[in-house]
Design a protein that fits this description.
With about 400 residues, the chain is α+β, with helices and mostly antiparallel strands. About 55% of the residues lie in helices and about 10% in strands. The strands form 2 sheets. Strands 2, 3, 5, 6, 7 and 9 form a 6-stranded antiparallel sheet that branches. A 3-stranded mixed sheet has the order 4-1-8.
């Protein structure tokens, strides 16, 4: 607000200077001198006319007329007292009231018609941006009221006006717009964040979420491409597969939707409360396909490691299901980030290697699990692995990773 008062004071001073210049630079009033010169010229012209009229015999009392003309000239000469009276007004007496009037009118009109309170609130909201952002990103972020969300949006827009290269700010603004179902704002904000950080996984996911809400086919296709890139980069986030599953279901690509929901089940495990909800979604997709619900079989694998295994959390976890005879070619396989161990994964027909040979067709099986440290499944040297006992289809499987390829 200090800037406002300084700027307004400068404008008022400038206006006063413009007002004072004409007052102090005014030229002397020469009306009396000009009138005196005019009277003299008129007197001389009239004398010439009288001489001509006398010569023509039109005037008999020339001298009387000349005396009258002289008296008229004397009567019209400006007096000294009159000149002093005209110049007795001081410029200061005019300037000071004018300055006070300008200041009073300016601030009075602003107080009546201006937005002083709104500007003050705007500055206060901008100062509260860190606190509002922290509250939004905290686990209790849903507790933000509508007024706080509006204030946060205003503060973010203000900050982004001065810092347009802040990708985090654009991402946060896009998330707020997504929460408010403001699709245009969400897409615009996420697009700017994506332009600044095209490789950031969180930005990519946010941009894909916004594009998925668009009614434009091109936007939705771009969203699928971005989500596909995230999957290729092993970005572990349920929202990625949730978006892919929802999109596939909307496009009536039910096998793809079932596959994505199955992956989500594998990521969270049967102990998660969301597991049954995903099962219902899969059953709904199967109904849409005309399949009999409940015939699908899955294999739940509980994976743990021995104490001597040092697993890189960024390595890949490869789970493969084989026939009971231990044939090298797996019937089904899946790849996950190692993350934290122990953990449970679930494989079903969606993980089958060949469409004509389903996992559910097995009566007995064994499971192999390997930690792939170099990202190349063809090389095994130095990788840790484990293998289960042969079990019947439907039984739970436990695998302990405790061996290393030499």
């Amino acid at each position: 607000m200090t800037l406002f008062w300084v700027a307004s004071a400068v404008l008022i001073v400038f206006s006063c200077v413009l007002l004072a210049l004409p007052i102090y630079r005014q030229k002397a009033n020469n009306d009396e001198a000009l009138r005196d010169e005019l009277n003299k010229a008129f007197y001389k012209d009239r004398l010439s006319e009288l001489e001509e009229e006398t010569d023509e015999g039109l005037v008999e009392n020339q001298q009387d007329l000349i005396e009258d003309l002289k008296q008229s000239l004397l009567d019209d000469i400006p007096t000294e007292s009159k000149s002093k009276k005209d110049s007795s007004i001081s410029p200061i007496a005019v300037l000071i009231p004018s300055v006070l009037l300008i200041a009073g009118i300016s601030y009075g009109l602003y107080a009546k018609l201006g937005a002083y309170e709104d500007v003050q609130e705007w500055h206060q909201v901008s100062e509260n941006l860190p606190a509002l952002s922290k509250k939004l990103l905290s686990p209790e972020g849903a507790a933000l009221s509508d007024d706080e969300m509006r204030d946060l949006t205003l503060a973010l827009r203000t900050r982004l006006h001065y810092e347009p290269e802040d990708s985090t700010g654009w991402l946060l603004l896009g998330r707020i717009a997504l929460a408010n179902r403001d699709v245009d704002t969400a897409i615009g904000a996420m697009k700017k964040a994506y332009r600044l950080e095209p490789k950031d996984s969180d930005v990519m996911l946010g941009y894909a979420q916004a594009l998925m809400l668009s009614q434009d086919d091109v936007d939705q296709e771009n969203a699928r491409r971005i989500l596909g890139d995230l999957v290729k980069n092993d970005y572990v986030d349920l929202r990625v597969f949730s978006l892919l599953a929802f999109d596939a279901f909307e496009r009536k690509d039910y096998p793809a939707a079932i596959r994505y929901w199955g992956i989500m089940q594998q990521m969270i495990g049967p102990q998660d409360s969301r597991y049954q909800m995903l099962s219902r979604s899969i059953e709904n997709a199967q109904k849409q396909m005309g399949q009999e619900v409940g015939t699908g079989k899955s294999v739940s694998v509980a994976i743990s490691v021995s104490d001597n295994v040092k697993a890189d959390p960024n390595a890949a976890l490869i789970v493969s299901i084989h026939t009971a005879d231990g044939a090298p070619m797996p019937v089904a396989a899946a790849r996950y980030p190692v993350g934290s161990l122990p953990r449970t994964v679930v494989l079903d027909d969606g993980n089958s290697m060949l469409p004509e040979r389903k996992l559910s067709s097995l009566e007995s099986l064994l499971v192999r699990v390997r930690i792939d440290s170099d990202g190349n499944v063809a090389t095994k040297e130095g990788d840790w692995f484990g293998e289960s006992e042969v079990v019947k289809m439907g039984e739970s499987v436990q695998v302990v990773i405790d061996n290393q390829y030499q």
